[in-house]
Amino acid sequence: MSDCEFHHFGVPTRANHDGEVYIEAGRVHVTDAASHPYRVEFLRFEPDTLMPVEVQTRAHVAFIVPDLDAALDGHDVLIEPFDATEEFRVAFITDGEAVIELMERR
Question: What residue ranges define each of the domains in the chain, with the CATH number in brackets?
Fold first, then answer.
């Protein structure tokens, strides 16, 4: 997928981090990857999250894609597309053991 752009590296954590934002759709607190020098996003999940265990326990890499639905075609979809923020619609796929987040700007 040559038309994708690296966005962040997501790391699950149990620790609270300054500047976390709560995302209701995932029942998860996330930091702003853009404010981290290496674009790391920390994710702290609520106990009642509906996110798959793979996303809760494994690091992931995230890419911005021009067309989320087209990018999902032919891949193992772990989480169907959802509105994560006002700016992004996202989905998660797996590729072997790798967890990958695909993000589409609105």
Answer: 5-105 (3.10.180.10)
